[in-house]
Specification:
- The complex is a heterodimer of chains A (84) and B (815).
- With 84 residues, chain A is an alpha+beta fold.
- Chain A contains one helix and three strands, in the order βββα.
- In chain A, strands 2-3 form a two-stranded antiparallel ribbon.
- In chain A, a hairpin with a 5-residue loop joins β2 and β3.
- By secondary structure, chain B is mainly α.
- Chain B is 62% helix and 6% strand.
- Chain B is built from 34 helices and nine strands.
- In chain B, the strands form three sheets. Chain B has a three-stranded antiparallel beta sheet with strand order 4-6-5. A three-stranded antiparallel beta sheet of chain B has the order 7-9-8.
- In chain B, β5 and β6 form a beta hairpin.
- In chain B, α4 runs antiparallel to α5 and α13 crosses α14.
- Chain B is elongated and about 155 Å long.
- The termini of chain B are far apart.
- Chains A and B meet through β1 of A and α25, β1, α26, β2 and α27 of B.
């Protein structure tokens, strides 16, 4: 017997490769989106800091904008620098 | 003469004239009054009258005449009339019976005629004031005379009179109605009516006797004569009304039974109107005396109709119309369930019913009858949910036509809504109907695309705002509730969705159905789903449909990613080409309904392909990866056996995995397969059935399967028949509504345990209210009613996780 597979339609779900489940700022799932967004994924990406903490991009930007003096990671209070 | 007895004492008998002259004058005048042909000269009469007046006797003339009439009536005329009706030797044939009837009335009229004439004459004298006469005039005298006649004649009517009259009228009616076909059908028809029948030679349809003996024309003449006699005696109303009414009622009912029952697709109002006009033609024959009589009787005698004959006809028309409406409504009320079931076809019946219902007082009857029809014919376990929904939708449409205020709809359909709430698959059926893939309620999909309720209702409210004069109050049978008539919606989808009182249940169910549909699709074609979602958005609002939109977007994204990856693969060299063409639907897991988890190890070749795919995806989307759901999806494959090839089979991944394993090794036991694939044995056993059915595999020993390389088709067929029931059940990939609810309740279990640990024991109501108070996590709690909680707790009791005694729940003592 010989079985030839012509087409395999699989189902998968995507997820962020992050060390946490939820965004530390909005407490929403990384795989979801930040409260201001409607669509997850490309439209609401994650960003990592050099301290290795990660957040929804929109959340951390909002946080950084509200910081007057020094821009710190909200989790570890180190100076926030985007990880390249 | 005997009338001397009634001369009062006060009369002054002593006077210039001698007694004999007074007596002679009295005799002359009374004889003149009752004689058939008056012979006295005017002068003599005036002299006699003057003489009587002088002696004060003239005012006694009226009472004397009436008294004489009464005596004559009771002593001879009435007995003669009744015995005239009973003539056994003449009662054999209908025609003879009619003649007897006529003869009796003729005799009656003959006997009474002198008195009537006398009254007339006396009245005239009185009016003219001849010889100093005065009195109530002809009208007053006649009225009193007719009252006596009626009283004495019909005081104890014998049933035979009614029977005869009824029979005679029925006959003349059928004669009158008969020539409708050939002739103009008007009142003039009866004259020429017997000719066509004579030529036919059979029984005359009018009088029902063989054509040569037809007496149609005679009967019509007799009718005319009878009517005139009755009118002269002022008996028309009393003798005919009952017979005519019963004839007409019977005919209307008959006609309705024959023409309308079970026939909903045609309007009968106009037909009946025409028919009624025809009947009125006959009535005008019956009551014809009224018209003729009016001329010489100058206006009608009191007791008879006050105007020309058309007034009577008008009254009859009203009466018949009313009776028609009532009969029609009663009949349709009985049939309303069937009418509703056939609705778009039975629109004519609904419109007729609406017209008639407005003219009768039968709404209550309609409501209670319809309710009980629903309960007995629809709301029992033997009826499929989709059928109930279909009838409900028809009912909405039909009753919307019948009663624009929607009151009937809301009251009558209450039982349906209540019952649907108890059916578990209601939501799924409605959603399936909305998406247009259920067998029964295809109307729903059309209804969905018809328009959105917001704009529809806006129009309504605008109309109401425009004219306060147009406002109509609710009918009296409206159920007083907080939603006024304005809010009472007739939108089918809103009504269906509101069965459960909450949109969320529907949205969740729709999401589940949508997920199923998307996952079962082979291509990424989502045009129809997009349209549905857009339409639902109009109804439920954007925010509710947001998740569904993300799901659809995932489909579009997946398609793009697939083609990206496909392109990349094509750039690879020949030997690097993947062994398997893999495409994927990539879900945003947070936005899809929870998918069933099943453990399944796919064959290495598939796993490798998936890893490669994941790899490319990771390159495409930084910092993101894929988590495969191995049991979901679909596979198209060919199976080549030694003597046959199965081409383009589309199966689920687990089927594909099984057959791939058999490719490596032609015989497997259930245990081996289970170990290899990480799936439970019973599941595999079920899935193997598909391949057995295709004749590819065979169970050679219990629990041991092998490939059938060469097989006869007959054997295959036999296996197919044998295993058909174990074929895949096409189970849905999403968890069902009840399973999800179970999970939600499970969430509360922790709370309940904590409460019971602290408070030792609690009643059901207490637990429920505590949950409402503390677990305010959204709509979940408010939706949970006490009964549901009780069922949940009872399950826990059965599982020995809880103890119930004396109405309170407590946790079992540990150890």
């Amino acid at each position: 017997m010989k079985v030839t597979i012509q087409q395999w339609n699989g189902v998968a779900s995507w997820l962020w490769v992050a060390n946490d489940e939820n965004c530390g700022i909005c407490r929403m799932s990384f795989n979801g989106c930040c409260p201001d967004c409607k669509v997850p994924g490309d439209d609401c990406p994650l960003v990592w800091g050099q301290c290795s903490h990660c957040f929804h991009m929109h959340c951390i930007l909002k946080w950084l904008n509200s910081q007057q003096v020094q821009q710190q990671c909200p989790m570890c209070r180190q100076e926030w620098k985007f990880k390249e | 003469m005997e009338d001397v007895a009634m001369e009062p004492d006060s009369v002054d008998l002593s006077g210039p004239e001698p007694h004999h002259r007074v007596s002679a004058a009295w005799d002359a005048v009374t004889a003149e009054l009752v004689s058939a042909d008056p012979s006295m000269s005017d002068r003599d009469l005036s002299d006699a009258l003057a003489l009587l007046s002088r002696r004060g006797l003239s005012r006694l003339l009226g009472p004397w005449l009436l008294e004489t009439l009464q005596l004559r009536l009771s002593s001879s005329v009435v007995p003669e009339f009744w015995s005239g009706l009973h003539q056994p030797e003449n009662e054999l044939q209908e025609r003879d019976r009619a003649l007897v009837l006529l003869r009796a009335f003729r005799t009656l009229l003959d006997r009474l005629d002198p008195f009537l004439n006398g009254l007339q004459r006396l009245g005239t004298w009185q009016e003219e004031g001849r010889g100093g006469l005065s009195g109530p005039g002809p009208r007053g005298l006649r009225e009193r005379a007719f009252t006596s006649i009626r009283a004495l004649l019909l005081f104890s009517p014998v049933p035979v009179l009614q029977e005869r009259v009824l029979e005679f009228y029925s006959r003349t009616f059928s004669i009158y109605m008969k020539p409708q076909g050939g002739e103009e059908g008007g009142p003039a028809a009866p004259e020429g009516s017997d000719d066509p029948q004579a030529s036919e030679g059979g029984a005359c349809p009018g009088c029902g006797v063989p054509a040569p003996a037809c007496w149609c024309q005679e009967a019509m003449e007799l009718l005319q004569e009878l009517s005139q006699m009755l009118w002269r005696l002022q008996l028309l109303q009393w003798v005919s009304t009952e017979a005519v009414t019963s004839i007409l009622h019977r005919l209307i009912e008959q006609r309705m039974e024959q023409h309308c029952r079970g026939e909903y697709e045609r309007s009968f109002l106009l037909d009946f109107q025409e028919w009624l006009e025809l009947v009125l033609g006959w009535l005008s024959k019956v009551f014809i005396g009224e018209k003729d009589g009016d001329c010489d009787g100058d206006g009608a005698a009191p007791g008879g109709p006050g105007g020309p004959g058309s007034t009577v006809l008008k009254q009859w028309r009203c009466h018949m119309h009313q009776f028609f409406c009532k009969t029609y409504v009663s009949m349709r009320i009985e049939e309303l369930f069937s009418i509703i079931r056939d609705f778009p076809e039975s629109k004519a019946a609904i419109e007729d019913l609406k017209f008639c219902l407005e003219r009768t007082n039968q709404r209550q009857q309609l409501l209670s009858s319809l309710k009980s029809a629903f309960e007995s014919r629809l709301l029992h376990p033997g009826v499929h949910t989709s059928d109930i929904l279909t009838v409900y939708i028809s009912a909405i449409k039909a009753l919307r036509e019948l009663d624009p205020s929607m009151v009937i709809l809301h009251v009558a359909c209450q039982p349906i809504r209540k019952y649907l709430r108890t059916r578990h698959d209601t939501v799924r059926q409605i959603v399936a109907g909305l998406t247009g893939d259920s067998e029964g309620c295809s109307d729903l999909a059309a209804e969905l695309s018809r328009g959105d309720p917001v704009t529809l209702e806006m129009q309504d409210s605008d109309d109401e705002g425009a004219g306060p004069e147009d406002w109509t109050p609710d009918p009296t049978d409206a159920v007083p509730d907080k939603t006024g008539s304005k809010r009472r919606s007739s939108d089918i989808i809103s009504l269906l969705v509101s069965i459960y009182g909450s949109k969320d249940i529907f949205i969740d169910e729709y999401r589940a159905v949508l997920a199923d549909r998307l996952l079962h699709q082979l291509n990424y074609n989502t045009a129809r789903e997009i349209r549905n979602v857009e339409l639902l958005k109009l109804r439920f609002g954007d925010s509710h449909m947001h998740y569904c939109e993300v799901m659809l977007k995932d489909m579009a994204d997946s398609r793009r990613i697939n083609s990206n990856i496909r392109e990349e693969e094509q750039r690879l060299s020949e030997e690097e080409q993947p062994p398997l063409s893999l495409s994927a639907i990539i879900l945003s897991s947070e936005f899809w309904p929870s998918l069933k988890e099943e453990k399944l190890e796919l064959p290495p070749v598939v796993c490798q392909a998936m890893e490669a795919y994941t790899h490319r995806y990771e390159k495409l989307k930084a910092m993101r990866t894929l988590s495969w759901k191995p049991h979901l999806g679909s596979v198209t494959l060919n199976v080549e056996l030694e003597d046959r090839t199965l081409i383009d089979l589309t199966v689920s991944p687990i089927h594909a995995a099984i057959i791939l394993h058999f490719q490596d090794k032609s015989s497997w036991t259930l245990e081996e397969l289970s170990a290899q694939m990480g799936a439970p044995q019973e599941l595999l056993h079920r899935k193997l059935a598909l391949w057995q059915q295709h004749g590819v595999l065979r169970e050679e020993a219990p629990g041991r399967y092998c490939v059938v390389e060469t097989g006869s088709s007959g054997e295959r067929l036999e296996r197919g028949v044998m295993l058909i029931d174990s074929d895949e059940e096409r189970d849905s990939n999403t968890t069902t509504q009840s399973e999800q609810r179970e999970e939600k309740l499970q969430l509360f279990w922790a709370y309940i345990q904590a409460m019971l640990t602290n408070l030792d024991s609690m009643t059901l109501e207490r637990i429920h209210s505590m949950l409402r108070m503390f677990v305010a996590t959204g709509p979940v709690v408010t939706e949970m009613d006490v009964n549901e909680l009780e069922a949940f707790l009872q399950r826990k009791v059965r599982d020995h996780q809880l103890i119930q005694s004396a109405g309170v729940y407590r946790l079992p003592k540990s150890n």
